[in-house]
Amino acid sequence: MQDYDHQPQMCAVKMFTDKGGNCKAWVTCNDGQRDYLDWNVCYVNGRQYFTDPRIGDFSITFTDGSDGLATPILQVSDVANWAPYDVDAMAVRAMKYPDENHICIDDNPYPGLHDTSLRWVCGVPKVGAQGNGFKSNGPVNAAGYRPGWCGVHVTQHQKQNPATDKYKFDIKIFDANNNVIGSVDGADATNPVIVDSKLPNTLVVTAGNVDADAVLMDYAGQHWGSNDQAHHCNFGAYDSGKREGDCGFTCD
Questions:
Q1: Rounded to whole angstroms, how far apart are CA atoms 222 and 233?
Q2: What is the rounded distance in angstroms from the CA atom of residue 87 to the CA atom of residue 73?
Q3: Rounded Cα–Cα distance for residues 240 and 242 (Å)
Q4: Which of 27, 61, 69, 244 is disulfide-compatible with 155, CB 3.0–4.6 A?
Q5: Is 236 exposed, middle or buried (0-12, 13-18, 19+ CB in 10 A)?
Q6: What is the pLDDT of residue 101?
């Protein structure tokens, strides 16, 4: 299983019971651990709800009490609208195929006399992120996008003839759920390219005069270039007649 609690887009949800009760949970992300120790339904088929600021609302239900409180079902509100993680089935697969990248594991598969606890760990994406086959979609506003930190992906096509041709842009705008909310393809960059989207303001993208110049971007009073680390820009070099990269910006 991957070390989810050290991945920027993922968290690890840890579940625990002992002697048919004593339910506990922890959510650990790259910014630390939060404890969820207060349960009011620590019994078979009791569905306990929690809210974590990194992964959103989630619930845990232990569905078997025949040999301790076991067989947890983990559900996360923003992952496929509370779609269940069948933790036991995923953990069994992890033991059968140890070289695969696993979603959930049994963290104490052989409880004994000195440690009777039952423990499981699952990887869950942060709100608006995706990983290991799961995507988290946080709630969107009335305009149909999730505000917060949006992204832009820009592909800049080189001039075939630098003396006469102009740059062209392919541009995609992503909301805080990393869903496409606006795009243009093959836009002539003779003048600044204006990109409409579900956002309340337009994004303006401007090409420089030569290949080495940064791509300039403007949104709602924010101004940055393709080499701007404050906007988390990451642009590659030209390859096969184009270069591409990503930046982020605040989108309320």
A1: 14
A2: 6
A3: 6
A4: 244
A5: exposed
A6: 82
pTM for the full predicted model: 0.72
CB 146 within 8 A of CB 237: no
CA 252/CA 250 separation, integer angstroms: 7
Distance, CA of 175 to CA of 177 (rounded, Å):
5
Give the whole-angstrom CA distance, residue 191 versus residue 188: 7
Give the closest residue to 185 by CA, choosing from 175, 173, 174: 173
The residues that bridge with 223 in the sheet, in sequence order, are 218
Q: Do residues 120 and 15 lie in contact, with contact meaning Cβ atoms separated by under 8 Å? A: yes
Query: Token pair of 135, please?
Result: 């995507």
Backbone angle region of 221, left / alpha / beta, with phi > 0 → left and psi within -120 to 50 → alpha = left
CA 2, 6, 8, 14 torsion-angle sign: positive
- CA atoms within 13 Å, Cβ hemisphere of 112: 2
Say whether pLDDT at 194 is over 70: yes
Distance separating alpha carbons of residues 146 and 221, to the nearest angstrom:
20
